[in-house]
């Protein structure tokens, strides 16, 4: 049936249930004459009498009864779904998909969501760890996480973490057999635990800066990992030097379990930002997640 007849069906269902044009007109907010004309037009298009009209009451014919049983429940389902959608507008619900690197997921997203999720039981957050510069629009993510210096200019960016520093660390047992590096170039003579980026497959260069002088060192070593936990375990075992986010090794440095070197070459740099496309309409759930992640330090 053409969509333009749906209003006719709604009018018929209301009259058949109320068994009165007067009561149905009041509920629909139309005049009795307009409602009568609408139902009559439906009957003419179908070529069937749907309602029997008397001075006392209006009742469906056999054809009208069949149509009422078929169409009535459908309109109830539609109305229930519309009401549910309205509740979603007022009560945030749904899934928010975020792509992020491992460190950002551990150090920024997890602590913020630990506070946020218990108070928002109808909001789900899906985090995919990906070190590449993911196209969040093409991959249908709601947002991504990147360092501030990697942000695309056509995206909205919200700062979600403090400035960061890297740290070069080694176990005391390693330094009992190897000299301390005095400058970053000395790392080429050390057994360095390398980092392979899972997405592109390349080995990450270690980046340094001092007094405005930037330097990248391509290190070598016996071990290559693509995650934080295995690098951290290897350095604690004395198997080489590791280039780690400072927050991941701060407690180990304080306890003396690992030793930090080249600290004066590890300058702060812009921390993590949440980025997403410029949309006129975002879901209430997404808006809440953004506010929960926003850095206020």
TrEMBL record:
Keywords: DNA-binding, Transcription, Transcription regulation. GO terms for biological process: DNA-templated transcription. InterPro entries: LysR-type_TF_proteobact-type (IPR058163), LysR_HTH_N (IPR000847), LysR_subst-bd (IPR005119), WH-like_DNA-bd_sf (IPR036388), WH_DNA-bd_sf (IPR036390). It holds the Pfam family LysR_substrate. Gene3D superfamilies: 3.40.190.290, Winged helix-like DNA-binding domain superfamily/Winged helix DNA-binding domain. Residues 4-61 form the HTH lysR-type domain. GO terms for molecular function: DNA-binding transcription factor activity; sequence-specific DNA binding. Transmembrane segments: none annotated. SUPFAM superfamilies: Periplasmic binding protein-like II (SSF53850), Winged helix' DNA-binding domain (SSF46785). Belongs to the LysR transcriptional regulatory family. This is HTH lysR-type domain-containing protein. It comes from Ciceribacter selenitireducens ATCC BAA-1503.
């Amino acid at each position: 049936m053409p969509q333009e007849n749906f209003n006719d069906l709604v009018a018929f269902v209301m009259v058949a249930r109320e068994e009165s044009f007067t009561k149905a007109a009041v509920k629909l907010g139309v005049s009795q004459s307009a409602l009568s004309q609408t139902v009559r037009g439906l009957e003419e298009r179908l070529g069937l009498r749907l309602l029997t009209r008397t001075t006392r009451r209006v009742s469906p014919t056999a054809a009208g009864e069949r149509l009422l049983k078929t169409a009535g429940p459908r309109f109830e389902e539609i109305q229930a779904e519309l009401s549910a959608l309205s509740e979603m507008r007022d009560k945030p619900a749904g899934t928010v998909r975020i792509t992020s690197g491992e460190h950002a997921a551990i150090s920024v997203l997890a602590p913020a969501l630990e506070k946020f999720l218990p108070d928002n039981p109808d909001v789900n957050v899906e985090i995919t760890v990906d070190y590449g510069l993911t196209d969040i629009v093409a991959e249908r993510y709601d947002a991504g996480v990147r360092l501030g210096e990697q942000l695309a200019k056509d995206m909205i960016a919200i700062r979600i973490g403090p400035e960061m520093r890297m740290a070069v660390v080694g176990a005391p047992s390693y330094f009992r057999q190897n000299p301390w590096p005095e400058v970053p170039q000395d790392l080429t003579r050390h057994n360095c635990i390398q980092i392979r980026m899972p997405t592109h497959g390349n080995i990450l260069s270690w980046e340094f800066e001092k007094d405005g002088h930037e330097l990248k060192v391509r290190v070598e070593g016996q071990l290559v990992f693509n995650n934080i936990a295995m690098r951290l375990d290897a350095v604690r075992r004395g198997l080489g030097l590791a280039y780690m986010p400072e927050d991941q090794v701060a407690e180990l440095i304080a306890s003396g379990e690992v030793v930090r070197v080249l600290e004066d070459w590890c300058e702060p740099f812009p921390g993590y930002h949440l980025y997403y496309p410029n949309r006129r309409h975002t879901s209430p759930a997404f808006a809440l997640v953004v506010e929960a992640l926003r850095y206020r330090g």
